[in-house]
Every structure is written in C-alpha cells, then in structure tokens.
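Take a sample.
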Amino acid sequence: MRKLQVSLRSFRRLCILKGIYPVQPNNEKQANKGKSFRTTFYLLKDIKFLSSEPLLQKFHEQRIFVKRIKKAVGRCEYSKAEDLDERFPKVKLDHLVFERYPSFEMALNDIDDALCAIFLFATYPPNETISAKLVHMCQRLAAEFFNYVIYSRSLRKVFISIKGYYYQAEINGQSIVWLQPHQFTQPVPRLVDFRVMRTFLDFYVYLLGFVNFRLFQSINLVYPPKLISSERELETEYLTAFSAHLCKLADVQTEEVALDSFQETSEALLQQQEEVEADQKFKRLFEGCKFFISREVPREQFAFVIRCFGGDVSWSATQGLGSTFDESDSSITHQIVDRANVDGRKLTRFYVQPQWVFDCVNARRLIPLEPYFPGKVLPPHVSPFSSGAINAVSYIPPESKMLAHKMAADEMKGGDKKCGGIQRQTAESSDEGVSSDDNDEEDRPASKRRKESATEGKLGPLKKTVAPGKKVSNKKTEFPDSHDKDLVAKQLSKHRRFYYNASKRREQESVDKAEKLMEKRKMADKIKRKACKATNG
C-alpha cells in the first residue's frame, strides 16, 4: 500500500475490481521473517500490475474532492459543497471488463456469480451504502436477462427452495445457474460489510450490461429494449411483465434449417436427430396452453417460466402491469391457484397448484394434473440438479429415482419403435458372422478331444516353463486387495497429508449427511403411514 500510495479501503477495492487475490506461501514463517502476527501476502508481479492501473489516479482525485467537500461544509459554504459534489469524479469500469474477459465465452463462464448478486440486490431496500439508483439498475438488468431467456427459449431446469428460485439456462452451449430470492422484505444483516459487496456489485453491473448487449444482438433485438409501437426506452415495470413485444433491429426472416437426411444413417446420427427433435419439442412445452395466475401466486417467476416455453399467461389488472386478458376469458386452459377452495369454478379450464408448472419443466413433458388439484397434498418437489449426481454416497430421493425410471422407459419405448429395423439387421448380420473358432472346435474329431481331456486330468493344469539358469522361488507374494490407508497417509508429506485428511473429512461428512436424510425420510414415511391408518380406521 505504501508503494501504491493508497489507503487500505482503496487497495482492497482495487484488488477486487482487478481480480487479484492473496496467496499462501509455502513457508509462511520464513515469508513473514519470523514475526508472530498474521500478514496477507500478494505476489510482486500483481503489485507491479496494479501500479500501472488508471483507476489509481481516479482514487486520488476522489480523495482530494472528499477533503474539499469536508472543508467547505466546515466553513458553512454549502453552495460550494454542492458544486463539488456535482463535479465529483466518477469511476468507469469498462476497460476492466475487456481486460478480465477478452472473449465473450469467458464472460458467460463467469456470469453465475454476477447474476446471483444482481438478483439479490434487486430485492434489497436502499441503505447508506447501496443507493436507490443502484437497486433500480439491478432490477432492470435482471428483467433484461429474463427477457432474453424468454425470447431465446434457453431455460432448461427450475427448482423452488427455501432460499428462492433456482434456474438453469443453456446459452451458447454453456449451462448457467443462478438464484432469485423470494419476493419478501429482505432483512439487512449487520455482520455483512456492504462496502465490499458494493465493490463486487459495481463490477457485476458493468459485466452484465455488456453481456446483455451481446445477447440481445445475437437474437436481433434492440438494446436497450424498446417497444415496437414507440421509440422510447421501455420502463422496468413493463419489462418485468414479460408480455411486451420488443423491437427488433431489422425484419430478418429466419428460416429453420432442416437436418440433412441420408439413406444409410448410422445409429449415432439417428440418436442425434432424436435429441434435436426432443429439444425442439421441449421448447414448445406450453404452446397452445393459456394460463391465468391468481393473485396469491408469485406473478413474475411463473410468468417467466411459462413464457419461456411458449405459453400465454396473464393476471388480474389490479395485480400488476402488462395483463393481456381477464379471468373471465373462455379460452383459458389452466388457472394457477394456491388455495384449497376456489369460488366460481369453470368447467372449461383446469385448476392446478403452482408446483405443476415447475414439475412439468423438470420432467420435460406435461405430467398428469390429478395430484396437483387444489386442496390435494402435493407430491415431493424433487430437485433436478441432484439427478445427475455421480457420487455414490449422495442421497437420492425415491421420487427422483421413479422419475428417472419413467423417463428412461419412455426413451426406451420411443427408441424401440424407431430402431426396430436396425436391431433386426444387426441380429441377422451377427447370425451370419459366426466366429471360425467355434466351427473349428466342432470340426475337430472327437478322439483328439478325449485324449486332450485325459492328459489334462492326469497331469493337472499346465505349469509355466522356466528358462535354465533361473531360480524358482516357492514363496507366494500375496498382496491385500486394499492397502492400509493409514499407512499410506503416514508416508505422505505434511502438506499433502493435510489435504488428504481434508478430503477424507469431506467424504465422511457426505456419508453422515446422506444417513441423516435417509433417517428423516424413514420417519416421514412412518408418520405418513400412521396418518393413513388413522384416516382409514
């Protein structure tokens, strides 16, 4: 800090913006020169890299302006203080985004943390550190990213948890997962240093702004978003409604490119064509369905999910802006309610609970409606992110296993219908191509086979011949199937043994967690069986 001539706060802010983190030396005592107090170490090349940063000059100018404003306020020169406040130097982080992410794919690969932070601060109330303008900017960036996901139909998985709503989208071949908190009043924790969080947020705002600009251009949309009928910039309240038709750069008619068809297609090519067709069908999951969201259901999240899969959605005009049709519309096919008793039911539509929408997306098909009728006990909401877990120790609920078996059975049925001809051809070719070794065994005379079996019975199994001059050791070297893990750990160095023990602790924690979840599931099933017996009895 003495070399850079900045304060601790400015140095910390500069390191966060530049993406420079402290390092742990191999010999901390030697690096600290025998001193007992803790010291944070940075690489010398990183400090030299920071010394040529143009933000240092901006930080010096800001420090000078802060001193001038304090002096003017102390002299009661309030007009001068206001003038200095208006001319306060502002920091721009455009060059840092291009410096840290030279390519667009690198920015997409690191966008998960930025999305989680943007969606979190979009629900926070303004305070001394986070201004109302910054909160509104977070809300706008989140709404713009939601609109891109809707227009590109890149949503793949959704899940509701205690923390909020988990989403997974596939953009340019990369899976992006982010969390949106529930729409409650978020309590501001006292133990969190919001000055550090504000530094991260400033950089994430610039990063997501550039990413949204590139994403909107990739699907031929105007950025910032504008309505087709007007030339002015669309407000955030209309963006969050997800019902506005955004203006495009040019009326380019994009035709879907059909896959080439060959007379002799391999099994891998057929499987690839089936995956493409299934993906296109999944993107049109809710096409032809018309949803109405009741007032007790969160509007923004469910409107976003339904629109991502081609469904039409609306809500009451008193609930929010952007409603396209009323509850009395006779063409509504599904009404999402979250209460047991619904007054004035209509026979032309289905009344379902909100979980049905998310379970349909995770199952990649329209599942039966009966278990999700109002007033019924809902089936467990299984996380789609744990279905592909490779760890054998992890706990997998029986519902997710049943869902995986059903999806595999459906795929097998579809594959049997399409690939029946290929299987018949392979069976015929395998029958024709019998190995010649079997024929040679059958053609060999029976007398020779009897003699060979008799000699094997007298002499026993054949022994290996040893070359002359070599000694034969009668001792048997028997190795255990699994080596002693404690002995292996003792042979490691102290540094490697620390990471080895840490990995073993993590494995044991995962085992304990899986056992606890299994015990909780057994207790829940036991209580459920007792309740069923009580009701039936």
User: Anything to note?
Assistant: The mean pLDDT is 79. The longest strand covers residues 164-171.
